[in-house]
């Protein structure tokens, strides 16, 4: 069982430039989103036993988010509910498909997440990241969960997926990020995250994680462990947008590890796993919004 802990929200995504009503103020289409939410849905579609751990509004958007989890086969036993509104993220998509976001997160349900009780014994991994680790008071509860589960030997995965517009004190956040690293088994981040946070794979490995995976957009993916350094190219695809691509990589890594010690994988094993993640991310990029692939779409050809 894999637990994904963090926020869910509604992405408001511009319609394509050729769509009716598009222009200086294009119509915005609501889509289910949030980095951890996308990761959980991607895991479910890949066939993993996944559970979402968060706090979701009882409003109509919240119900739609729950429906999306259930449709993907993701369990919702660890979802807390609240009457506060759902967080909204307004996406601006550039010509190359990359997305930037403006957030409406004041007083929303996911910020009031509380530390859950002990997780089931069969949990083999917990994934964290994005807004949930930046917005209090929920951020402290997620951090407590990270430390607690790492302390009992569960594989922990961190994708900071930095949103600078949500971080009032950059230096304080960077210090907090450094404090998380001793409790992280696998750190996955983008080149943009790395540039904003500062540091290098070697420095991060020295602080605790057994593995660092970096996504480079069209440049592919790279991994570093204490014994291995491997890179794979991106899979060429006509990009609709990049929303959810990194979250799909998270899910592919978690699913592909399948209980293996990530620090013990050799170079060929990492090359296979990164290539699988690159294929999955490419399919997500080929579709508008965060629409990760199903296992059947990634099946190797005969």
General description of the model:
With 302 residues, this protein is of the alpha/beta class. Helix content is 31%, strand content 24%. The strands form 2 sheets. A 9-stranded mixed β-sheet has the order 5-4-1-8-9-10-11-12-13. α3 (138-151) links the parallel β8 and β9 (155-159). α1 (35-46) packs across α7 and α7 runs antiparallel to α8 (267-285).
Secondary structure: elements and pairs:
Blueprint: E1 2-5, E2 9-14, E3 28-33, H1 35-46, E4 50-57, H2 60-71, E5 75-82, E6 88-93, E7 99-104, E8 125-129, H3 138-151, E9 155-159, H4 170-180, E10 186-190, H5 191-197, H6 201-206, E11 211-215, E12 221-224, E13 229-232, H7 245-257, H8 267-285
Parallel strand pairs: 1-4, 1-8, 2-6, 4-5, 8-9, 9-10, 10-11
Antiparallel strand pairs: 2-3, 6-7, 11-12, 12-13
Helix pairs in contact: 1-7, 7-8
């Amino acid at each position: 069982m894999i637990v994904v802990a963090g926020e869910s929200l509604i992405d408001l995504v511009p319609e394509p430039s050729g769509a009716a009503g598009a222009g200086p103020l294009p119509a915005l289409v609501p889509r289910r989103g949030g980095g951890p939410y996308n990761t959980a849905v991607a895991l479910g579609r890949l066939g993993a036993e996944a559970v979402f751990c968060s706090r979701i509004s009882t409003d109509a958007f919240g119900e739609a988010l729950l429906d999306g989890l259930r449709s993907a086969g993701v369990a919702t036993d660890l979802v807390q509910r609240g009457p506060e509104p759902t967080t909204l993220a307004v996406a601006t998509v550039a010509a190359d498909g990359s997305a930037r976001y403006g957030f409406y997160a004041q007083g929303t349900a996911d910020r009031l997440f509380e530390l859950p009780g002990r997780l089931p014994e069969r949990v083999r991994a917990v994934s964290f990241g994005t807004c949930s680790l930046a917005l209090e008071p929920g951020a402290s509860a997620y951090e407590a969960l990270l430390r607690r589960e790492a302390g009992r030997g569960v594989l922990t995965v961190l994708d900071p997926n930095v949103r600078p517009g949500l971080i009032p004190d950059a230096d304080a956040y960077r210090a907090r990020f450094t404090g998380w690293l001793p409790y992280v088994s696998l750190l996955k981040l983008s080149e943009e995250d790395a540039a904003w946070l500062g540091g290098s794979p070697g420095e991060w490995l020295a602080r605790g994680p057994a593995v660092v995976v970096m996504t480079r957009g069209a440049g592919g993916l790279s991994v570093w462990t204490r014994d291995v350094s491997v890179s794979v190219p991106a899979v060429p695809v006509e990009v609709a947008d990049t929303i959810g691509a990194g979250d799909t990589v998270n899910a592919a890594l978690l699913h592909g590890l399948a209980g293996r010690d990530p620090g013990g994988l050799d170079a060929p094993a990492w090359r296979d796993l990164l290539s699988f993640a690159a294929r999955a991310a490419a399919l997500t990029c080929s579709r508008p919004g965060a629409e990760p692939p199903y296992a059947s779409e990634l099946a190797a050809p005969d």
